[in-house]
Design goal:
Strand order of the largest sheet: 9-12-11-10-13-14
Radius of gyration: 21 Å
Distance between the termini: 42 Å
Order of helices and strands: HEEHEEEHEEHEEHEEEEE
CATH topology of the largest domain: Enolase-like, domain 1
Number of domains: 2
Oligomer: single chain
Helix content: 10-25%
Length: 328
């Protein structure tokens, strides 16, 4: 496969070819219900891209059972079996006369578990080939939404705002590719100023923990998760003496650990997502306010307190307490 085809696979999609979903909702006294929207691809768009660039007969995919793990529900302590699968997308390389495989995996989803898990693993495998990877460089866009049952819907009059923000972000990404030396941040397209205060996370939140190896392999294929902007969470305290007693954690607090900050990613103007690496190499994603002092990649934390929150759209972790132990 030529480099030209590789570039064509990774080219951004037109606005009409991508899907938008509300990841976080929040209420604002003056603007009403607001939602942070992110873009994603449906499997059909990926299939069309492969057909157009590679050819119908020159690519194929396959699914492989990965593993089953016991997942404990922190609320009722019940144990369920969590299944997952790998998907591989193979493209025929005419020059080498062989099939080149790229695999990635996903767990079964909460809604339509088998279908959702297969679809997610297919999208992640496509991202390994560069298809849709640019979407994960884009931050969320805040627009007006309305509530319909348990679902937040983007208002019709906001579609133009979304298109303008998407096209602007795509242009900056393309310009950055043409001139790699001049890195440009991709704007979040916020059409209404800073996000409002009270937030509610949506589904597709990152799982509580995943292995360091899997996280590194899938880092480029995991969409930027929503952040609880100014959520009703106590601000993590500054560095405190180890002898100072900690308040008793709430019932839904996760166990206390010592961690090293493995990675950081912006999750809006006032929040960021950090990956906390345990001594055993397990990664735990958690949200923290961007204003927190001392939070940086390589910093070691002790007496870490993670509180698991749950909304109608899923679960997520908040970093509600820590002490800075050392910097790498």
């Amino acid at each position: 496969m030529s480099n030209d085809k590789v570039k064509l696979l990774s080219m951004p999609f037109a606005f009409e070819e991508v899907e938008a979903k509300v990841q976080v909702t929040s209420k604002d006294a003056s603007k009403g219900l607001r939602g942070m929207v992110v873009f994603y691809l449906k499997s059909r768009a990926i299939q069309n891209r492969l057909d157009e660039v590679i050819g119908h007969l020159n690519w194929k995919n396959q699914y492989v059972d990965w593993k089953e793990v016991e997942a404990k529900d922190p609320k009722d302590k019940s144990v369920k079996i969590q299944k997952s699968q790998l998907c591989g997308i193979s493209i025929y390389n005419e020059e080498r006369q062989e099939w080149v495989d790229k695999f990635d995996g996903a767990e079964c989803s909460d809604i339509e578990p088998i279908k959702g898990g297969l679809s997610d693993s297919f999208k992640r495998a496509a991202c390994m080939w560069g298809i849709g990877r640019y979407l994960y460089e884009m931050e969320g866009i805040w627009v007006d939404v309305e509530q319909r049952g348990n679902t937040s819907i983007i208002k019709d009059n906001q579609k133009g705002i979304l298109k303008n923000a998407y096209d602007t972000a795509v242009k900056k990404i393309i310009d950055a590719r043409k001139n790699p030396g001049a890195s440009q941040p991709v704007p979040n397209g916020n059409a209404g100023g800073s996000p409002p205060t009270h937030t509610q996370p949506a589904n597709n939140q990152p799982k509580q923990q995943r292995s360091a190896t899997a996280a590194q392999q899938n880092q480029s294929s995991t969409p930027p998760p929503p952040a609880p902007q100014n959520a009703s969470v106590k601000q993590p305290p500054p560095v405190q003496p180890a002898s100072k007693s900690e308040p008793k954690p709430p019932n839904n607090a996760l166990p206390t650990h010592a961690f090293k900050i493995h990675s950081m990613k912006s999750a809006g103007k006032e929040s960021q997502l950090v990956e906390l690496c345990s001594p055993e190499g397990e990664l735990t994603p958690a949200y923290v306010r961007a204003s927190e002092q001392g939070i940086a990649v390589g910093v070691h934390l002790q007496n870490v307190r993670l509180e698991e929150r749950s909304g109608s759209y899923g679960k997520y972790n908040l970093l509600t307490g820590y002490e800075i132990a050392a910097a790498a």
